[in-house]
Amino acid sequence: MPYTAPSMRRIHFGTDGWRGVMGEDFSVQNVRLAARAFARYVARGERPEAGVLVGYDNRFASDRFARAAAETIASAGIPTWLAETACPSPALSLLVRQRQAAGGLMITASHNPYRWNGVKFKASYGSSASPAIVAEIERELDCVYASAAPALPRRPGAVQPLDFRTPYLDTLEKLVDWNRLRASGCRFLFDPMHGSAMGLVAALFRRNGVACDEIRGRRDPVFGGLNPEPIEGPNIAPAREAMRGGRYDAAFLADGDGDRASAMDPGGRFLNAHQCFSILLWHLAGTRGLAGDVAKTFSVTKLVDKIAAKYGRRVFETPIGFKYICSLMLERDLLMGGEESGGIGFRFHLPERDASVCALLLAEVMAWHGKRLGELLAEIETEFGPHHYGRFDLELLPGQKEAALELFRSDRIERVFGRPVTGREDLDGIKAYLGDFGWVMARASGTEPMLRIYAETSEAETTRHALEAAVAAVRALEDPRHSRPQGRDSDS
To answer: Which CATH number fits the domain 388-488, given the four candidates 3.40.50.2000, 3.30.565.10, 3.30.310.50, 3.30.1360.120?
Structure first.
């Protein structure tokens, strides 16, 4: 008979691997199933002898889940290395590429609440597994579930420990101009939000003579009761409080597994991922004149398009998920690529998002120009116009997300906040353009029972009203008792 896991839901892959709630669908048993599918994929590849690296974050029992995954892969006769301590996801990606391994597996749920955990697959090129690779792993998982599936040869395999953090730090140290940073006299704050990026950026700054303190830099599996996602709201309250005293010139924040970043100015002014992306593109393409085009996901600000156009760079737009950005970075000459959630990758580092690299580069931009991030953003907006972005998440019942997307797709929404809809795109979700005024977009989450609604206009107030109008239209479709706001990420 086909294999069934008692009281466990079947594994389903989303935009970046598989995530589930611990004690429900995320269990040691299911982690072993996912690892077995990954081992089958590696064993059927060209270089299984190159081995697999396994890393993990600071979540509850992540080290145990990682050990279970590593033992499963090693038992298939594949050389397997397990991180000695928790590490950021990009540290695993870097070592996979540097050691020319066959792949990597990361135990993390990234920015999700503490009850969640997950598995990310990393390919040999050092980034998220491509959609084609994920599809192959899914086929292997189907074979694992099927009783008739031939098992891989079961050979005893030792799991070897490996230091992931030291080579990662050594690589990052070569990416920025430390002389310029020291001369700037800037003081920085780093907030890893109790995640696995703790102790890295601050250590690099200090050993190179640049002042940097760290908050929330110890392991806490419940993340202090806040989600480890660096977005506007209560999640960043500790960093905002630390910035109000005027002691620091900038704060940098990283999510739970250290691949997504945001920043903060003195006084606690938050800079979201769109603004950080825009500042970095403006500096790298403009000030430094580095070659290459740009990639961004469907929900990223149009400010990126305007900056890229000035410097003669083509912009490639992809569905949501960094794996699509990565695919383009491997195929084309791209300077950088990024997504709305704060993940940005650079050609001179990895085709992978990395919060620590973003923090180092933003600090270098400040030192280069002798200005704070808010001042730099003001210069950019003076030239290209203001862009105010916002997001609102709704938790909906099954079927309601589909009805909401159909609403955005249909002509029933002809105006938003008094503005006519002038066009639509459906690359990933449905985006309704409001002429030069801006855009509103709806997209179903790939990992949670959420409908995400986005908006961008030239004014903070109108962005808020556009979001509220779109949310009201969705709520009119269903019983409001079954939906509740999950948060708002806006610069207003």
So the answer is: 3.30.310.50
| Least confident window among 9-18, 99-108, 346-355, 477-486 | 477-486
Only one residue has tokens 């928790």, namely: 86
The pTM of this model reads: 0.91
32-54 pLDDT, tens digit per residue, is: 999 999 999 999 999 999 999 99
Distance, CA of 311 to CA of 32 (rounded, Å):
48
Architecture in CATH of 18-168: 3-Layer(aba) Sandwich (3.40)
pLDDT in tens, 288-337: 999 999 999 999 999 999 999 999 999 999 998 888 999 999 999 999 99
- By the 10 Å C-beta count (0-12 exposed, 13-18 middle, 19+ buried), 333 is classed as exposed
| CATH code for residues 173-384 | 3.40.120.10
Q: Hey, what amino acid is at 153?
A: P
CB 342 within 8 A of CB 273: yes
Average pLDDT estimate for 207-214: 98
Pairing type for strands 159-162 and 80-83 reads: parallel
Segment holding 452, helix H or strand E: strand 450-457
Helix (H, G, I), strand (E, B) or coil at 424: strand
Helices (H) and strands (E) in the chain, counts: 15, 24
Which positions ≥6 away from 174 have C-beta within 8 Å? Answer: none
The more confidently predicted of residues 210 and 473 is 210
- pLDDT band at residue 228, thresholds of 50, 70 and 90? very high
State how far the alpha carbon of 442 is from the alpha carbons of 212, 320, 446, in Å. 39, 12, 13
Rg of the Cα atoms in the chain: 22
If you search the block for the tokens 């990416």, which residue do you land on? 175
Q: Can you tell me the distance from the alpha carbon of 344 to that of 4, in angstroms, rounded to the nearest whole number?
A: 39
Residue pair 442/404 in contact by the 8 Å Cβ criterion: yes
The single residue listed with the structure tokens 């970095």 is: 280
